[in-house]
Amino acid sequence: MAAIEVEGLERAFGEVLAVQGIDIEVDEGEIYGFLGPNGAGKTTTVRMLTTLLLPTGGRASVAGHDVKKEARAVRASIGVALQEAALDPLMTGRELIRLQATLQGLPGNEGKRRADDLLERVDLVAAADRRVGTYSGGMQRRLDLAAALVHEPRVLFLDEPTTGLDPVSRKTIWEEVRALNDEGTTVFLTTQYLEEADQLADNVGIIDRGRIVAEGTPESLKAQIGHPHIQLQLAAGSVAEAEEVCARIGKLLPPKDGKTVLVEVENGAADIPRTVRALDEAGIAVESLELVRPTLDDVFVAKTGHHLEKDEEGAEPNPVEV
Length: 322
Description:
Number of strands: 14
CATH topology of the largest domain: Rossmann fold
Helix content: 25-40%
CATH class of the largest domain: Alpha Beta
Radius of gyration: 24 Å
Structural class: alpha/beta
CATH architecture of the largest domain: 3-Layer(aba) Sandwich
Strand order of the largest sheet: 6-7-8-3-9-10
Largest sheet: 6 strands, mixed
Order of helices and strands: EEEHEEHEHHHEHEHEEHEHEEHEHH
Number of domains: 2
Distance between the termini: 30 Å
CATH superfamily of the largest domain: P-loop containing nucleotide triphosphate hydrolases
């Protein structure tokens, strides 16, 4: 049984269709990366799948329960950590996790044990009796993750869990997501970070303007764009001569400048030695050589016509995201 099944899911806000008939299937025990820029519909989708927002079309089930007809059963089966952690700054970390255990119906002693175990798991034991308002952003994200795990959910929704975090905090979250998945938890991860989706996800769905534009494993999506290419920076010799040599090895790509040669190769790194030998035999000196592999941003550009990275760096978000 799939952990998440989505068919023709839609959400309209007035005349604006924020999510436009998307289909998703996530297997049990999978990390599914939902990749897209701000305003693409990621958060709206998560809110529907977690019963926080009613769909206006289509259907969805999570952990075998319909999100509209069996909302209570869905909520009992999932853990949710949204972009903005809803944490009381006046409570201590320990108090907050114990309160969450009580709200989930755990008996007193079991709730205390579970809270202590989770605080240790997310490396917050030393700060457990400090007020949450004194925590850094990374500590608050880890505490929010612990709160989402109190009842040992089958499916965990993480909505951009590392946005705004420093590299060390981001890596810590990644490690915890991998560990949870190794234990059998299905993870639905929304992100606008290419590296995050590439590093963590078994499968990726790319959403843009409310539509799924590509779906598959990170490697299969990148393979759709083409093979890796070798980028050569020449120290001596003409580009024309180098291109003539490289054309016998792979497909030439449009050059970036007058000293660079790009050649697409089928065998990746295995084609580097023969390329170097062929150029050396032709008397062409190479200043630098780099194997460049297709990226998820290349996939995004091919499917949408614009870069995801540009949106990350401050492009105005699409107003349909809520």
